Structures are given as structure tokens and as C-alpha cells.
């Protein structure tokens, strides 16, 4: 069973992000780990109690950035990523946020479009990976 909840357990979020971004995608550690975690709301997605994904919400008044969205390879295609993103959007709406933004890896644009996000602007590189800015009015 998939479950998504807010967490203060940064160690598990960092471990998931390390696996997906640093080890799997070769993102430099200094690009992945920053000083924004202390200011963020963190979501943890579990399957039958086992941590399988996480996301970070950075709030800035009526706008929020969803970032560091990761799902372990073995859980991709199971609906966990969609559940994680829906929980993130619900959390933002509950906080009065009216616009959600994110930087999507180009290969994942279709995933975010299915959730209602719209790509804006040109492609750009982040940590050596092509991205596009995406926005969703809540």
C-alpha cells in the first residue's frame, strides 16, 4: 500500500535522494545537498512501510517550488510518483499556495504534464541534466 506523509526525517530523504540523484544520475553531491532543506516541507512516500520516494516543498508566499522529487527505480511505474506529487499539491493548496513551480528533467515532462503542469521557457541545464521550468495554477 502506497502512503505519503510529511516527514522531519531528513536522513531518510537524503538517503533516497543520494541513491537516485547522486548514485544513479551522477549529480554532484554539492549540487544535490544544499542549505534549503532546513526551510522546506519534506514528503516521504512509502510502500508497505518501506521508504521509496520523497519530495521537497519550498514555500514563498503564494508560490511554491516542488523539488528533489525522487522515486527508487524499483517503485517507478507503480503510481508512487503520481501519489507523491498529488500529496505535494494537496499540501500546497492546504497552505494557501496558488502557484506550484518545478524544474522538470526533460525526460519527465510528460509525467508532470499529466498532472496539469505546463512547460515554460527554454530548456536549461541543471547538474548536467536538461530541464524545463513548469508551472501549475492551484
Keywords:
138 residues, alpha+beta, Aminopeptidase, 7-stranded mixed β-sheet, 4 helices, globular
Describe the structure.
This protein is 28% helix and 42% strand. The chain has a seven-stranded mixed beta sheet with strand order 1-2-3-4-5-7-6, sandwiched between helices. It has four helices and seven strands; from the N terminus they run E-H-H-E-E-E-H-E-H-E-E. The chain has one domain: Aminopeptidase, CATH 3.40.630. It has helices at 10-24, 29-32, 80-94, 109-113; strands at residues 2-7, 41-47, 50-60, 63-71, 99-105, 118-126, 129-137. It is an alpha+beta fold and 138 residues long. A hairpin with a 2-residue loop joins strand 2 (41-47) and strand 3.
CATH architecture: 3-Layer(aba) Sandwich
Helix fraction, binned, reads 25-40%
Number of β-strand runs:
7
- Number of separate structural domains: 1
Give the CATH level 1 class: Alpha Beta
What general form does the structure show?
globular
User: Considering the protein shown, what is the CATH homologous superfamily?
Assistant: Gcn5-related N-acetyltransferase (GNAT)
Give the helices and strands as they follow along the chain.
Answer: EHHEEEHEHEE
CATH topology: Aminopeptidase
Largest sheet: 7 strands, mixed
Q: What distance lies between the first and last C-alpha atoms, to the nearest angstrom?
A: 27 Å
Helices and strands: which structural class? alpha+beta
Oligomer designation: single chain
Poorly predicted spans: none
Physical arrangement of strands within the biggest beta sheet: 1-2-3-4-5-7-6
Rounded radius of gyration (Å):
14 Å
Mean pLDDT: 96
Name the beta content range.
35-45%
